[in-house]
Amino acid sequence: MSRPAKTLPAKGRQAQEERLRSVWANPQGWRYWTTVNNTQIGLWYASASFAFMLFAGVLALLVRLQLAAPQNDLLSADFFNQAFTLHGTVMMFLFAVPVFEAVAIFLLPPMLGARELPFPRLGAFGFWSFFLGGIFVCGSIFFDAAPSSGWFMYPPLATDKEMSGIGADIWLLGLSFIEVASIAAAVELIVGIMKCRAPGMRINLMPLFAWYLLIVAGMILFAFPPLIAGDILFEMQRMFNWPFFDAERGGDPLLWQHLFWIFGHPEVYIIFLPAIALMAMIVPTFSQRPIVGYSWIVLAAVGTGFLSFGLWVHHMFTTGLPQISLAFFSAASEAVAIPTGVQIFVFIATMLAGRVIISTPMLFGIGGLATFIIGGLTGVMVALAPFDWQAHDTYFVVAHLHYVLIGGMLFPVTAGIYYYYPLVNARHLSDRLGTIAFWLMFVGFNVAFFPMHLSGLRGMPRRVFTYPANVGWDMLNLLSTVGAFIFASGILVVVFDVLRPKHRQPRAKINPWNAGTLEWISEPEENWGVRSIPLIESRYPLWDQKNLARNVNGGRFYLADAEEGRREGLVTSVLDAKPQQVLRVGGTSYVTIVSAFALGAVFIALTFHWWIVAAASGITSFCAILWWLWTGTAEIPEKLAKDVGLGLTLPLYASGPASVGWWAMFITMVGDATAFASLVFSYFFYWTIHRDFTAGIAGPGIHWPLAAALLFVCAWIATLAARQLNKQGREAGVRVVLVGACALTVAASAAGFAGPWLYGMDPTRHVYPATVWILVLWVLAHAAVGAVMHIYCLARSFAGRLTREHDIDIHNVVLYWHFMAVTAAITFAVVGLFPGVR
Amino acid sequence: MDPAGEEAHQVLQLSVVLFCGAAAIWLGVVAALLYTARRRRKSLSEQSASRFILFGGAVLPSVTLAALLSYSLWLMPGLRPFGQAASAVLHVEVTGKQYWWHVVYRRSNGPVVVSANEIRLPVGQRVELTLASSDVIHSFWIPALGGKMDMIPGRTNRLSLLANKAGTFRGPCAEFCGTSHALMAFAVVTMEAQAFQEWLGTQARPSPRAADDGAALFLRHGCGACHAVAGIDARGTIGPDLSHLGSRLTLGAGSLPNTADAIARFITEPERIKPGVQMPSFAMLPQDDIRNIAAWLKDLE
C-alpha cells in the first residue's frame, strides 16, 4: 500500500482547491436548476419525496376523519376511494422507494470515497422524471380525476372505462414514467457501488449501507420490470381493447395479480432494506464499535432479497389457488422471517458488545425496531394460510403493513434525518424537538394502528368508506383517528425542526458523532465530495486509519487537483477496488431536463389520447437523448493517460467490460430482459389456464417467424462482425457491415410483422392473438432501437469518434445486440413453434 | 373473534397460540433492546455476541416457524375439504355483482331456490359453496363461520363451511369492488337443520301475497325487467330476486334495515343510498304507487 503524499506548499494547495471548487461549482441564478451534482440532486429528490409523503399523509388524515364515526358523510364514496388509492400509491411509489434513491444519491459518493456517481446526468434525468410524474399523479385529485381502484388496480374493475375513468390511465402512465426513473437510479447505483469505490475498499470492506443499496438496486432491476410489463398489457387493454384481463375473451384477471405481486412483494423489501441499512450505519456509531457479524448481516440481506421474490402468492391466498401452492408460498413467507430476525439480532448484539450512547437517532432507531417487530410478528401470522383466510383484506392487514412500513421505514428514516443532518448544512437538529417528535409519533402511531388489529379481527374489511354502527367498530375507529392526528403532529414537529432557520446556531464540528465511516470526512460547503480520493484499508477507516481526515483534506491522496478543468473520479475493479481508469463525468446541462420533460409529455399526452402531442414530444425526447449521447458520452480525451498522484498513472479511456458504460448497458438490459420474460410468462400463463389457448384462432404460421428469427440472428452476426472489423482498424469494412446490419434488422422486423399480419390475427378478438402481437411488438420496438444504434455507430464512425482505439460505442451496441438476438430468437420460436408442439 | 363455525373456531385456536407467542417474543426482544441502553452493564465479547446472533436470530426463529408452519399446514386440508365435495348435502351458488349477491340453493331432493343478499345455512351440516362473479372481483366472507374466498370473473371458486351454532351474522364483501364496496354485505342466518328445511320449503313456493294489488303496479312500472318475483310475470335477472323480500333481514345488500319506508326510499333515491348502483331512481313515479309497491314488497314473506 502506498502512503499519503507529503504536504503540499500552502499556496499550491489553495490553487488546487480553487480549481476543484470551480470545476464542481453549481451554476448560479435560475441555471442552478440545471445542476447535476449528486449533493443537489439527492437533496431535491429527498425534499420532493417528503413533500409527496406529507401530501399522502393529509389524504390519510381525511380517510381517518371519514372513518372516525359510523355512517359518516364527510367525504363522498368516490372521493374516499380516490383518497385511499392515492394515499397508497403515493406512499409506495413517490415516497418509500424514491426517498432511498435520494439518500443513496446523496450519501453514496462520500461514503465510497468517490467524487460523484458514474452518471450524474442520468441521476438528474431520473429526478426530473420523478418530479414531473409525481406532480402529475398527485395533481389528479384536484380535478376529481385521481385513480380510485386501489393502489393494486385489480382488473376488471380498473380496466373498465366506466367504473374507473381517466384516473386509471393516470396511474398506469404516470407511474410507468416514474418506474423508468427508478430503474435509471438503480442502474446508476449498481454501477456506482461496483465500480466507483475508493481504491482499497474491497467488496468486504464496503460500508453496510452500500451493500444494502447494491442488493436493493438489484431487486429494483428484477421487481419493477414485471410491473412495467403488466402496465403495458393493462394499458393496451384500456387504450386499444386488447383483452388480456377480460375473461370473456380468454383473458384472466389473475394474471395481473401475479405480475403486480411479483413486483409488489419485493417492493416491501426494497423499502425496508435501505432503512435497515441506515440502522446499520447508526447502530455502530452509537455503540462506538464495529458491527458484530458483518458477514451475517450481509448474507441475511442477500437472503432476504432473494427470498422476497418467492413470496408473492401470499397476497393471493384467497383467490382459490390449489392448496399445494398455498403451502409452498406459506413456507417461503415464513422462511423470510429468519434472515430478517438475523439482521435485528445483529443490531442487538452490536449494542450489547458496545457501549450504547442514547441520542435522538438511536431513540428513533430503537422505537422503530420495537414497532417493526410487531409488524414482523403479525407478518408471520398472515403468512399462515388459514389465519390469512380470516385476516386478508381486513384492518388487521392494514395494521400489519403500517407496523412494518412505519416501524421498518419511517422511524429509521427519521433517525437517518437526525443522524445525517449535520452533513447537509453543518448544523444539528434539536434534540429537544427530536425527543418530543419521537414520543408524539411513537404514541400516536400505536394509538392509531394497534386498535386496527382488533377492528380487523372483528371483521372490518379494508377500503370501506363507511361502516354500520352496531357491529362494534365505533370506538376502535375513533381511537385510530385520534392516534393518527397525534402521529401527524409528531411529523409536523420534525418538519418544523428541519425547516426552521439555523444560521444563529453554532456550526457542528466535522464528524460530530465520532462515526467510523468515510462520509463524515466531507464538508457540507464543498461540492467536490472528497478533497482527494483516499486509500481505504478498513471497514471503519475514520477509526482505524490514523490522520485519514487530515490527509484527505490536505489533498495528499489521489486526484487532488483538476488541472484540465474536468469533473473526474476513479474507476476501480469490482471485487478488489484496484484503480483502473480516470472517469470524466458529465457536468451541468439542460439536456437532462429537456429529455425528462419531453418524455414526461409523451406519457401525459398518451393519458389524454392527444396522439399528435405525444408523437411530437416523443420525437423531441428522442432527439434530446441522441444529442445527450452524442455530446456527453464516449468522449475522446486529449491524452491517453493521466497522473493521478502517488505515482499512479491511469488511462482516461476504457471500453468494453472495463468501462462503466458497458456495465450500465448490461444492467439496463438485464432489467429489460426481465420485462420480456414477464411477457413470455404471460403467454404461457394463458396456455396453462385454457384447454386450447389459441381458441382455434390461426397463429402467425411457422415460416414468417422463423425467417424473422433467422434474419435477426444475421443482423446480430453482422453487428459482431462490425466490432471485429473495427478492432482490425478496417474503417470502410465497419461502415459497410453496419449498413448491412441495419438493413437486415429492417428486413427481420418486416418478416416478424408479416406473420401475425398476413394471418389476420385480430388482437381485440381474443387473448391469444393479443399475446402474440404484444411479443412481436416488443421485439419490433427493440429492433427499432437496435437499428438506431447501427446508424449511430455509422455516424460516429464518419465523425471520427468511433475508431480502433476509441470503440466504446460499438462494444455497447454489440452488448445490446446479444440481448436483442436472444429476445428475438425466443419470441419467434415461441409464437411460431409453440402452437405446433403444445 | 366469536366463532360459530368449524373453520373460524380452529383459526381462533391458532390465533391464540400466535398472539401469546408473539407477545412473548416481542417482550423478550424489547427487554433486550432496553437492557442494551443501561449504563452500567458489562459489554459482551465479540464471540458471545456472535453466538447471540446465531441462536437468537437464526436457530430459535427457525424452530418456532417450522412448528407453526406444520401446525397450519396440518389444519388446511381439514378446513377446506374440497376432495369430498359430494358429501355435502346442500350446495349454494353465490354470484357477486356490483353491489349485491345472487344466491341459489340446490339440494339433491327438492326444487332450486333463488334468493339474494341473504344466506341461510343449517347447523351441523357441511355446505359446499360455489362462488362466481359476473362483473368485477368480489370476495365472499362470513367472519363468524370461516375465512374468505374471492369471486373472480371467468373462474369458479369453491368454499366449504360448517356452522356449529345458530345465530345471525354479517358477511361483507372483502375485495374492493368499486364505489359502494362498503355497502355490499349480506345477512347470514344459521338455523337448526329442521327449521332450515322448513324455511327452504317456504322459499321454494311463491309468497302467498305475490298476487296482491302491488303486483300490478310493480309490473306496470316495469320493475319486472330487472327483478324477478316468483308467482307473477316478473323474471328480470339484472337486479336481485325479490320473491321473498319481506322475510329478509336487510335491504340493499346490508345497507338499510328492511322496512316499507326504506324500500320506498330505495326506489326513490337509490344513488344516494348506494353511490354507483345500477338501479335508476324512480322518483318520477306517483308517491302513492311507490308506497304501495313498497308495502307489497314488504309483505312478500
UniProtKB/TrEMBL annotation, chain A:
<dbReference type="InterPro" id="IPR000883">
    <property type="entry name" value="Cyt_C_Oxase_1"/>
</dbReference>
<feature type="transmembrane region" description="Helical">
    <location>
        <begin position="122"/>
        <end position="143"/>
    </location>
</feature>
<feature type="transmembrane region" description="Helical">
    <location>
        <begin position="362"/>
        <end position="387"/>
    </location>
</feature>
<feature type="transmembrane region" description="Helical">
    <location>
        <begin position="41"/>
        <end position="63"/>
    </location>
</feature>
<feature type="domain" description="Cytochrome oxidase subunit I profile">
    <location>
        <begin position="18"/>
        <end position="540"/>
    </location>
</feature>
<dbReference type="GO" id="GO:0004129">
    <property type="term" value="F:cytochrome-c oxidase activity"/>
</dbReference>
<dbReference type="InterPro" id="IPR013833">
    <property type="entry name" value="Cyt_c_oxidase_su3_a-hlx"/>
</dbReference>
<keyword id="KW-0249">Electron transport</keyword>
<comment type="pathway">
    <text>Energy metabolism; oxidative phosphorylation.</text>
</comment>
<protein>
    <recommendedName>
        <fullName>cytochrome-c oxidase</fullName>
        <ecNumber>7.1.1.9</ecNumber>
    </recommendedName>
</protein>
<keyword id="KW-0408">Iron</keyword>
<feature type="transmembrane region" description="Helical">
    <location>
        <begin position="582"/>
        <end position="604"/>
    </location>
</feature>
<feature type="transmembrane region" description="Helical">
    <location>
        <begin position="771"/>
        <end position="793"/>
    </location>
</feature>
<dbReference type="InterPro" id="IPR000298">
    <property type="entry name" value="Cyt_c_oxidase-like_su3"/>
</dbReference>
<feature type="transmembrane region" description="Helical">
    <location>
        <begin position="475"/>
        <end position="499"/>
    </location>
</feature>
<dbReference type="InterPro" id="IPR014241">
    <property type="entry name" value="Cyt_c_oxidase_su1_bac"/>
</dbReference>
<feature type="transmembrane region" description="Helical">
    <location>
        <begin position="433"/>
        <end position="455"/>
    </location>
</feature>
<keyword id="KW-0812">Transmembrane</keyword>
<dbReference type="GO" id="GO:0022904">
    <property type="term" value="P:respiratory electron transport chain"/>
</dbReference>
<dbReference type="Pfam" id="PF00115">
    <property type="entry name" value="COX1"/>
</dbReference>
<comment type="similarity">
    <text>Belongs to the heme-copper respiratory oxidase family.</text>
</comment>
<dbReference type="InterPro" id="IPR023615">
    <property type="entry name" value="Cyt_c_Oxase_su1_BS"/>
</dbReference>
TrEMBL record, chain B:
<keyword id="KW-0349">Heme</keyword>
<dbReference type="InterPro" id="IPR001505">
    <property type="entry name" value="Copper_CuA"/>
</dbReference>
<dbReference type="InterPro" id="IPR045187">
    <property type="entry name" value="CcO_II"/>
</dbReference>
<dbReference type="GO" id="GO:0042773">
    <property type="term" value="P:ATP synthesis coupled electron transport"/>
</dbReference>
<feature type="domain" description="Cytochrome c">
    <location>
        <begin position="209"/>
        <end position="301"/>
    </location>
</feature>
<keyword id="KW-0679">Respiratory chain</keyword>
<protein>
    <recommendedName>
        <fullName>Cytochrome aa3 subunit 2</fullName>
    </recommendedName>
</protein>
<feature type="transmembrane region" description="Helical">
    <location>
        <begin position="12"/>
        <end position="37"/>
    </location>
</feature>
<comment type="function">
    <text>Subunits I and II form the functional core of the enzyme complex. Electrons originating in cytochrome c are transferred via heme a and Cu(A) to the binuclear center formed by heme a3 and Cu(B).</text>
</comment>
<dbReference type="InterPro" id="IPR008972">
    <property type="entry name" value="Cupredoxin"/>
</dbReference>
<keyword id="KW-0472">Membrane</keyword>
<dbReference type="InterPro" id="IPR009056">
    <property type="entry name" value="Cyt_c-like_dom"/>
</dbReference>
<keyword id="KW-0813">Transport</keyword>
<dbReference type="Pfam" id="PF00116">
    <property type="entry name" value="COX2"/>
</dbReference>
<comment type="similarity">
    <text>Belongs to the cytochrome c oxidase subunit 2 family.</text>
</comment>
<dbReference type="GO" id="GO:0004129">
    <property type="term" value="F:cytochrome-c oxidase activity"/>
</dbReference>
<dbReference type="InterPro" id="IPR036909">
    <property type="entry name" value="Cyt_c-like_dom_sf"/>
</dbReference>
<keyword id="KW-0249">Electron transport</keyword>
<dbReference type="GO" id="GO:0016491">
    <property type="term" value="F:oxidoreductase activity"/>
</dbReference>
<dbReference type="GO" id="GO:0005507">
    <property type="term" value="F:copper ion binding"/>
</dbReference>
<keyword id="KW-0408">Iron</keyword>
<keyword id="KW-0186">Copper</keyword>
